[in-house]
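Service request form, structural biology core

Requester: graduate student, group of Dr. S.
Request type: structure prediction, single chain
Budget code: on file
Notes: please return the result as structure tokens.

Sequence provided:
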Amino acid sequence: MKELLQKLLARLDAFNPREQLMVLAGGIAGIVLAWYAMFAEPAINARQQVAAELSTTQARLADLQLRVAQQGQQADGDPRQRLEDLRRRTESVEGMIQNYAAELISPTEMARLLERVLERRPVLELRRLRNLGAQDMLPEDSPGQNRLYRHGLELDLEGPYLAVLAYLEDLEALPWRLYWQVLEIDADEYPNNRVRIEVATLSLHEEWIGV
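Core staff response, request fulfilled:
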């Protein structure tokens, strides 16, 4: 994918400005389709995978709550055994969340990381970086001490469209779980484009210190 992107950049740079404009006008649909294949579709799949994993976690928590309620309605049985069963199930859910969180970057580090990666693309200008806050991903009545929060950042970038694609490719290559989506593209001032991107990570903590 990286070699293909470099070839596209080299070919576009070889044209004069008028030819570049013609290429953009005639091939915008192809560029959009290529972008979708390389970036948007994998990102959508990643978000769907996260949603599925969170849904599974929530289903297990709901099942745990149901079993606890059923056990509470039983007149017989050892209360100490029921308490031990509850403790084991709660630890199992919390362990699953901890394992998932081990693959995530902290919200504090994510803000700095996005800016460091952006330094690789000097033709891109960061016009704005906005904190979108934290969103609790688990039901309020979920048992256990651990919570799971979604932290989002909104980036407003300006620069060549292919450079934006290269930046998104850089984010895809990082070893941490980052989830992004393009919110808006403004190509009125060709060859520069204004692109608004949301990048998110998950965390066990609600607090945000990075922005």
